[in-house]
Amino acid sequence: MSQEVLKNPIMVSGKGTTSISAEGLATYVPAAIALLGSVVVVLLRINVGGERFITDGALMMLALASYLIAAVFYLTNMYAPFRLAEKLGTWAATLGVLFNLSSWLVRWVAAYDREVAIFNSQGASAADMPWVFRYVPFANLYDLSLAFAFGAGITTLIVIRRNQFRIVAALSLPLAAIILVLARFIGSELVDLPPVLDSYWRPIHVGIASLSYGIALVCFAVAVLYLLKDGLKVEKMAVWTSAFAIGTFVTISKFSIFSPGSFGTYTASTFVGSSRMALGLRADIPYVGWMILAAAALLIAAVAGYASYFSKNNDIARTWGNRFLYAALLVQGAGISVLVYQLKTLQNVAALISPAQYPKFATWMLQQQDMPQAQINLMGQQQLFDIANKWIIENGSQLHLSLNANPVELAALITAFTGTFFVVLFGIKTERIREMLPSVDTLDGLMYKLAGVTFAGLALLLMTGAVWANESWGRYWGWDAKEVGALVAWLTYAGFLHSRIAYGWRGRSSAYFAVVAFLFVIFTYLGVSYLLPGLHSYA
Amino acid sequence: MSTLEHTATKDVITSAAKAGSGESIFSRFLKLLCSVRLGVTLLVLLGLACFIGMIIMQQSVDGFDRYFAELTPAQRLVYGNLGLFDIYHSWYFNALLFLVSMNIVLASIDRFPKTWLFASKPNVTVPVRWLRDQKQTAEAEIDGDANTLAERTAAVMKKIGWRKVAITEKNGRTYVFGQSGLWNRFGAYAVHVGLLTIFLGGFLTSQLGSTGNLPLTPGQKTNLMFGTQVQLDKVTEVTKRLPFDITCIDIQQRLIKKDGSISAMNTIDWMTKFTITDEDGSHEAFAQMNKPFDFRGYRFFQASFTPIGRARSITINAKPANGGAEEILTIARDGSAALADGTKIKFSEFRGNFRIGEEDPNEDTSAYPNPAAVLQIEQPGTPPQTAYAFGPQMANIPVAGKPVAGYTFQLKDFEKVADQHILSVQRDPGATVVYVGFILLFITLVAVFFFSHQRVWAAIEMASDGKCNIIFGGNANRSLGAFDEKFKRLVTELETK
Description:
Radius of gyration of chain A: 26 Å
Low-confidence stretches of chain B: 1-20
Number of helices of chain A: 18
Oligomer: heterodimer
Shape of chain B: elongated
Mean pLDDT of chain B: 88
Largest sheet of chain A: 2 strands, antiparallel
Largest interface: A-B, 76 and 92 residues
């Protein structure tokens, strides 16, 4: 027997309801403070501060510091749970997001001031003034990185509303901090906007990109925690992070460290005078190449130790693997420190440049001057060498090194170090961390939610990009490298979602999809801009 | 567990069982085509192919010739034969897209009836053991008889948001079943319809679309556009005829720094005014940066410009050689003006980097190093003479001080503009279909990921002392956190009375 329900439902007390929703709202307070706080900061900048107000660059550094402090609190809390540390972590994270968004908003105002100054100097009338979205800070990779870190920060604040997910911040905030470090390396100079990008689709498209990337970052952090909780051996994670680190070591410095001709040599790009364009001329940085080689050797030794442990369950091999990993972490840290110190202090850069690269540099210079390739090919090695040599005699004294010359390489080195750092950390009291983590199902639920939103966000990113391209270039899809990059990341998230409904693939396989998908997001965000040519090469 | 999960699990198990029992090859092939595993595998392959296309430069990208020149002969041979230089148009890439589409269609057809059954005939009287196995489950002993409690439970369920409520009795138990967002189970199908619509649009574009470049110089008429065909490092130009004539009226460039060059980085906007003439007459047209002009399914975009510095108008100073008063005239491109004594001055040419002799058509003069206007002076009774008005850079060269028809001329100011604007012309009947697909995909994705199908059961059984034992159970296909809170509310509210 079946019957439809009562026409007049009986009302019951709503007492419990009110308290639940009030509690629910209270958990949004940090996110609300961060958003409202940054609006206050930008209003102060507009109305009170003027140009002497704290700069967007300084605010970015404050955000970076706050994210790192928050991460330290959360990481400490993993090993020695302490209510105060958790609270301080949340407040530091809140401040981090506040400074992060403030930095972006203040940058918008600064970009406006800069453009208006240019227009005023030309005696332009009010009608000639550019409109508000022309100077929205989504013009280059620095702007995108700032917004990306914000996306990750605000998503973290929303995720850690629930106490059981606080631990996610211990992983996502250091990653957000790396994005800001990368931004610092890229440099915060305001750039001129190519006119074709002066469209209202730009803030929509890039805004969606930065938020989606941010959510993807937190999803990645959850996927890693899921794998940890699911019992994936930390040693296996160490093999993956070591592979990433060795891959980074091999490819940086134009493959020079492992090439037979330049074995053990690390080179950094140079700048000339006040130009912001990195030259195709790289200076040898002493010691760094050998330290990277040593780190690679230690990582390979660690991987070998773990391989023996996996195949023969050899505990001694595992212990040695751990020792090598610790040593690799120390050497990586030392290598980065030595590199950064030398980039900031080394003088007489011309003396550090190997003449072997002169012909290549001359070719690069001629290409920059738009000389046809066929004409360059006709020149002999000696002729090319002489061109470069003459240039260096004339300009050598103006050559200098900078942290801004190789942003992606430096950030990759720091990411590799962070990867090793986390597996070392997870290796200490692994079972205790596993106990602290929410259940596999709960983490899976969060991962699914974040991946679902990222998937929808990337779909929207692709769609708005297509509409923009169609409105500006008359084609909605052109197989441009960045378009394809975002598509590959989107397909991988689609793979994640479908692997959950394919029998037997749910769980760990799905989590691997979430990890790989984020790597594609990073490749799209950085790799395409720095490695591949195309429409998006500006950002 | 969602319907899809249920069906997926069952599918594989039944297919595995049937496979052993002599199922036809065709049937097994069809099952493979319907499977989600194949779908995921195809997605991975598609992603891989796209990734190869990113890493290996495609022949349509600028600078491909340089990249191609640096490859070894072996690389050229292998990549070329595998179609990796134009992977997105290779047969296997198209085959992959086709297979993905087939998989989507067949998997949807395969699963839809089960979802329909699941939605139309909800399982209200579930076993108590199953309720206890649900992610959310609770048990309570509450005063009252089964009917009253069932009605109360139903009311609370409705109030909390599970609007569709049914009460059923079976084997001495009263079941109350509530659910919300049932439509969410169909969201995934709608998402795939959106995706297939986009694929269809893409197919239409590839089959029916047409594109080309249209260089426009003021005063000139054309009906030809130019496209390129790329075959590895060889680019050939293709000419296409438009079904109407285009006459360029005016081109204009809005600069950021007016004393700067006409480079793209110093430009806010390009404007092109032209008329289109077809069998219906003449139509005025205007295209701006990011504001294309639409006509009969064709769109005209600002695409690029020739980097040769010209002037849209000049302001010149005419100084009588005999010491009379100076006159200042402003003349538009290809226009003319008259001095007080009736002398006609025609603005015939403008050079950004003036040199005696012919202009080099390949020289980039967008920075206007030595601007000069070439004028034709006409006076009654004398043949036209050529005069030059130089900018301040060349004001002191001897020819600048030599009078022509009784005057010396100086270039006081000019409005910078390129020699010609190049519009991109696109005809794309697939774009509208793609847009429809986008809208569908967007709406359905939001509907799928931001809502959920929630189900909740209460099995009520009379216990002793006028009390009832209620076993609650429930699940949701997503947004589990929100569902958990609602579930707890249901139990708390019923217990607190």
